[in-house]
Amino acid sequence: MIILKTEDEVQSMREAGAIANTVLREVAAFVEPGKSTLELDEFAGSRMAFYGCKSAFLGYRDYPCNICISVNDEVVHGIAGPRRLLFGDIVSLDVGVRYGGFVGDNALTVAVGGCGVEDQALLDVTERSLMQGISQAVVGNRVCDISRAVQACVEESGMTVVKEFVGHGVGRSVHEEPQVPNFYEGGKSPKLKSGMTLAIEPMVNMGSPKVEVLSDRWTVVTRDGLRSAHFEHTILVTDSEPEILTCHENMPSTLKA
User: Fold this and answer.
1) End-to-end CA distance of the chain
2) What does the pLDDT read at residue 53?
3) Which residues make Cβ contacts (< 8 Å) with residue 63, sequence separation at least 6?
4) What Å distances lie between residue 189 and 141, 193, 197, CA to CA?
5) Mean of the per-residue pLDDT values for the chain?
6) What is the pLDDT of residues 84-118, one digit of tens each?
7) Where are the domains of the chain?
8) Bond before 178 cis per omega within 30 degrees
9) Which of 112, 157, 185, 203 has its CA 20 to 30 A from that of 151?
């Protein structure tokens, strides 16, 4: 069942989304060569505590970390540990927080110190495909219109979208209906209605779309070993333009510096 949010619930989601985005930005700024992924995760946990929220991921289906940190060929769900970041790595940061009973979920991929032209193109295409998908999240369209927009943007750039993992509804739970794929293979999909809140999250590979899960049962990697990027926003479908809820400008006044 797709849950439409009331205005009061949307306001709570704006606050959760603002905190999620603020933490994401802070962790991204904390990234530098020599830092371990565990240090990033601990920093994220400390910032969540500062803002009075909790990780939406820690303990979810036994996930062991505050945020998902995926490096280079790791697509999503990477687990923090002793691995130290190197100059030229790319690292995907997926931050979800729970605040006021609701979840804010967002992600981005950053270069560690700097990166090459091909890696930067991967990051640019993935972020651009996210914004193309968001632009289609309007009343009267269907979920598949989001999917088609993401896929077209990625594939016209010669890259590929991951098909085993998709976006989703979000609200009081991390995952709600409907699923929001980054590809379209035919058939009907739900119509978009005002009050729907969706996590749109392209996962884009430089090479083959094929992925596999490592023995830790969480970390997803590209099968060909080439790099992958991940960008995500939580958005609200409205009667006019879609609203990005993971927007740090919506920070609750009581939490602003």
Assistant:
1) 39
2) 98
3) 57, 77, 218
4) 10, 12, 16
5) 96
6) 999 999 999 999 999 999 999 999 999 999 999 99
7) 7-255
8) yes
9) 112
Q: How far apart are CA 242 and CA 234, in angstroms?
A: 10
What topology does CATH give the domain 7-255?
Creatine Amidinohydrolase (3.90.230)
User: Whole-angstrom Cα distance, residue 160 to residue 175?
Assistant: 24
Helical H segments across the chain, by residue range? 7-30, 37-50, 117-135, 143-155
> Three-state SS for 141?
strand
Say if strands 233-236 and 102-111 run parallel, antiparallel, or are unpaired.
unpaired
Instruction: Give one word for 121, left, alpha or beta, with left for phi > 0 and alpha for psi -120 to 50.
Output: alpha
Tokens 């596999």, residue? 212
Q: Which residue pairs from 209-215 have beta carbons closer than 8 angstroms and sit at least 24 positions apart in sequence? A: 209/160, 209/161, 209/162, 209/163, 211/75, 211/162, 211/164, 211/165
Q: State which H helix or E strand residue 243 sits in.
A: strand 243-244
* CA atoms of 99 and 85, how far apart (whole Å): 30
**Residue 243 forms beta bridges with which residues?**
236
Helix, strand or coil, per DSSP, at residue 19? helix
Q: Is the pLDDT of residue 229 over 80?
A: yes
DSSP 186: S
pLDDT at 29 over 60: yes
Q: Per-residue pLDDT for 257 more than 60? A: no
**16 vs 186: which has the higher pLDDT:** 16
Name 106's bridge partners.
95
